[in-house]
Structures are given as C-alpha cells and as structure tokens.
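Expect chain and fold; thus:
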Amino acid sequence: MPRRATDFRRPVRNTFSRWICLLSLFLIAGSVLFFIQHYHDQEPNMEQPILEINRSFHEKRNLTEEILNPRSHARQLVEQMTLAKAYLVLAKEHNNLHLAWELSSQIRNCQLLLSKAAKQEQPLSVDEAEPVIKSLSSLIYKAQDMHYDVATTLVTMKSHTEALQNRVTSATVQSTVFSQLIEESVTKNIHCVEMRLMSQWLNDESVQKEANRIRNSPRVVDNNLCHFCIFSDNILAVSVVVNSTVWNAAHPKQLVFHVVTSKAKHGAMQAWFIGNDFKGATIEIQSIGGLSWLNASYSPVVRQLHDSVKSFFGDSEGSSDRKYVSLLNHLRFYIPDIYPKLERVVFLDDDVVVQKDLTPLFSLDLHGKVNGAVETCLEAFHRYYKYLNFSNDLISSKFDPQACAWAFGINVFDLITWRRENVTARYHFWQEQNSNGSLWMLGTIAPALLSFYGLTEALDRRWHVLGLGYDPNIDNRLIDMAAVIHFNGNRKPWLKLSIERYRHMWEQYVNQSHPHLQNCILDI
C-alpha cells in the first residue's frame, strides 16, 4: 500500500504532547482541589481553639461556670485535686510522708491557681494550668504505682466519709441546741415575771379553779368557733401572738386558743392568761407532760430527741426538760391526736405578730388538701433539693427536687383530711428512715415537706411575710399588707440582738400595764 504524501500524514508527535499537557493540568487541578478540601476540613479544628482562647481572655466568666464546663482547665484541676486529696490521705496512712508532702504542695498550688482565677474572673490559660496538671498527674500515677488500688481507696475513703458525717451530725446537733438556747434565753425582767407568775399559780386557788373551768368548757371543742394552736414555753411571745390575733379580729369572742407548754412553765403560763383580758377569747393551756400517749413507743421522734439531748447534756437533771422543750417544736405533727374533736385549726408559731383578721382562713377552700401554707420558692434555695438528700434513692425516687417548699408560721390544717390521709403515720415513717441522719439534718421543715408532699395548698403570699428575724431590709409595703409577719431567725424581737427596725411591731402587743411586768422592770 503506497504511503501518503508528507503533507497528509498525521501529526503524531503533536497529538501526544497535547494529551500529556491535558493530563498534567488535570493532575494539578486535582491536587489543588484536594489541598483546598483538606485545608477546609482542618481549618475549624485549628482555628476554633485559638478563637475560644483569645475570646476567653476578653470575657469575664464565673469560676463556677468554668468548673462545670467539662472542657475547661479549671474542671481538670478540680477533678485532679479531688483525686490527689484522696491519695494524700492514703499516703499519710501508709506513712509515706514524702509523697504526702509532694501531694500537699501541688494541692496548695492548685488551690492558689483557682483562687487567682476566681478573683480575676477569667478562665485559666494553658500556660497557667498545664504545669500543675502535669505535676498532679505525675504524682497520682506515682501513688497508683505504689499499689494504692481502687479497693483500698474506696474502703479508706468510706471510713473517712463516715467519720466526717458523724462530725457534721454532732456539729449540727450542737448548733441547733445553741441556737435554741439563744432563742429561749430570757432577760432578767422576763425571768422575774415568770417567778412571780409561778408563785401566783401555786398560792392562788382561784387561778387554778379558773384553769379547770376553761379546760372543761364546751368552747374548746366547738367546731363553730375559730381554733388556733400555739406550742411554746415563752410566755411573753405567746401573749403577743394571742394579743395581736385578738386585737385585729372582727369578732374576738369567736376565737379559741390552744397552748401547749413545758411542765416547768405550765403554772406561770396559766397565771398570765387567766390574769389578763382578751376580749372574750378563750385560752386553754396544757402541759406537754400531760400528753402521756406521746412516748417513745408511739413516737420515734421522742426516742431520737431523748438520745440526742442525752448525748449532748448527759444524764443531768436538765436533760429531761430539754427534751420536752425540743419536743414542743414537733407537736405540730400531732395536732389531730392532741385535739381529737376538732376539724380545722390554724397553727401559729410563737415568733409571729398578727396584723389582720385571720377568721377568713377557717372558710378557705383547701381543695381536698391537708395543709394551707405560703410557698417560699421564689428564691432558688427554697426548693426540696436544698432541704433533702437527693443522693439517697428513697428520696430521689419519690420526690421532685425542684418541688416548691413552704413555710411554717401560719398554717391552716384540715384535720378531717389529715386523719384520712394518716399524715402523722407518714411523719413517723420518715423519722424512722432518718434515724441515722442520712436524709436530712435536724429540724421540722424537712420531715414536713415529706409528710405533706402533695397535700399542701398554696396560700396567697400576703397571709405570711417571713424574715424579720434576720433580714433588716424587707420592703415596708410587704410588711404593711401582710396578715402575719414572722420573726424567723435568731434575732427574736424579745432579745437584745433583735433588729431595731422591727422591734416596735412586736412590743406594741406586750401588756406593759401588767403589775408583775411593771414591778419587775422597777425592781431590776
């Protein structure tokens, strides 16, 4: 076959060169795209921490927020410091003083660093935190390498936790007792009045006859009247509660007051109320010693109070009376037992002053609930989780930690529903469960929150304003419109340490004209 002329032959070399150029361009373009895509994927991971670190130096943040942030250096430091403290205890127990000294030194460095961050309101930088974190990590690894295994750590820490819990319980008991002693402390004037009243009770038969007449009066069980109950051994405090309630009532003769006091103060309390005029209101006085059914076999709290007071005061003569004084605070859980014929009562604490007529509370619809009370959860710390141990399964499985708490001071109790719901049995159950103090510390509000859970009707906040025993800055408008003001706290109005701004609100209801009070003021 003849070959083509030179002019008509295929340009082989030129075509091959073009393909090589195109292939090179594709390779270059692919490489560029791959590089761009790879850089784009890596860019956020490289830049984001830098942006966050730079931003953190310009923003002030609370240290608590930093500690709660699982990515923060502060959180790492706190966790390592907690672990280091555990190994510090183990090192001391094994007499490894050098390791203990190293751990203590690094724990102090960690604490100083966290303190500095808290003062500056800025998160810790990498340069600040990294040396301490590395040092702590090295020491923790060293401790682990010395066979301080998990089992040993758990057993040791459990024993230390139990010891600390016992110390906390003991301190709480002492704090409660001392607080109560402060609140119940009386001036020489009041002590003088009590002695004179007791002498009158023992020497004046007419006073005792009048007390018997009142006790047997049909008025004390008449459910058409308005019944109030007060449990206290403070004579002047109870007289102010009664005076202020009567003074502001539209129909004082419809009021009946039931007072339970200690055995030591029973006679003086009787003499005071029988010797004063309360506009036709009836005041019945009982001694807690007369409640023979309230004993350790029926009430777990009687047994617990006896043990706690005995451990604090020993077997001294005053320990028994101390138990009764403490038990007065728990009588609020036995109201249906103390007054079996009553259907509805209003409970009043002895540190309140009444400013409005309270009789509308007796016709108030509680919607089938047992307890009418003012809620106190406008502030976050007045919710259930602040009063109860929600790390305990018995509590966490039955109660909402965010449930709203409420206050004692003025409470409306439907005793018919109380008996039907067997609230006192609930109270006994929870007291038994808390025999070791694992659910809550001492006091009455925690067991009340448990016992009346789902059985409390919220009242209008104007019925009850609290805080006059510790807060000097309560708005006057709140006080003026309150039906009841409550001097809860240690600064009681009958003490010298009371808040002066509020003292006159309580003193105006003290019967200054009483002869015993006048004589004692002149004599001292």
